[in-house]
C-alpha cells in the first residue's frame, strides 16, 4: 500500500451497516416527499398516465420489508402490491414507518457472506442478495424522482435530494 492509498477497517468499499444506512437515508427522504404532498393529490394526481405517488409508495412498501423477510427466511413468495391499500396520508406514513423498522430488523439478520449468494426474489428475479438490495434502492430513487416531478407540477418545492438524513 502506498502512502496515498487508504483502507477501511474491513478493506471493503462499503460494509453492510453502511449500505443499510445509505438505504435508510433514501427512505427518510422518500418519506419527506410523501409528507410534502397534499393528501388529495397524493392519491389522485398523476401525469402522462403514470400512477399516483401513493401507488408508487405502496409498491416500495410492498418490496423492501417483504423481500428482506423472504431473503432471511429463504421464501420466494410472490410480490403483492394489493395487500395494503391506504386511504389516508397518515395511514400510508404509518405503514412506511412500520416497514422501515422491518427493513432495519431483517437487513441486520442477513450475514455478510449471504450478500453474494443468489436469491430468487419473489420467485421471479435470480440475482445475488446485494444486487436485489441495490434494486430496491434504485427503484425507490426512480419513483421518488417521479414524485419530485409531481410536486413541481403542483407548484410544491420538494425536499432537497441531498438532505437524506435531515429531519
TrEMBL record:
Keywords: Metal-binding. The keyword Metal-binding applies. Gene3D superfamilies: dinb family like domain. The keyword Mitochondrion does not apply. InterPro entries: DinB (IPR007837), DinB/YfiT-like (IPR034660). It holds the Pfam family DinB. Belongs to the DinB family. This is Damage-inducible protein DinB. It comes from the Bacteria.
Amino acid at each position: 500500500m502506498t502512502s496515498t492509498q487508504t483502507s477501511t477497517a474491513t478493506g471493503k468499499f462499503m460494509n453492510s451497516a453502511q449500505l443499510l444506512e445509505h438505504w435508510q437515508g433514501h427512505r427518510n427522504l422518500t418519506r419527506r416527499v410523501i409528507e410534502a404532498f397534499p393528501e388529495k393529490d397524493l392519491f389522485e394526481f398523476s401525469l402522462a398516465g403514470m400512477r399516483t405517488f401513493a401507488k408508487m409508495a405502496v409498491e416500495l412498501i410492498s418490496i423492501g420489508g417483504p423481500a428482506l423477510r423472504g431473503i432471511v427466511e429463504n421464501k420466494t413468495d410472490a410480490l403483492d402490491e394489493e395487500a395494503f391499500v391506504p386511504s389516508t396520508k397518515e395511514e400510508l406514513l404509518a405503514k412506511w414507518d412500520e416497514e422501515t423498522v422491518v427493513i432495519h430488523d431483517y437487513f441486520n439478520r442477513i450475514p455478510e457472506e449471504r450478500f453474494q449468494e443468489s436469491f430468487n426474489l419473489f420467485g421471479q428475479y435470480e440475482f445475488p442478495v446485494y444486487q436485489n438490495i441495490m434494486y430496491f434502492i434504485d427503484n425507490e430513487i426512480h419513483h421518488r424522482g417521479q414524485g419530485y416531478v409531481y410536486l413541481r407540477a403542483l407548484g410544491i418545492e420538494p425536499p432537497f435530494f441531498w438532505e437524506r438524513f435531515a429531519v
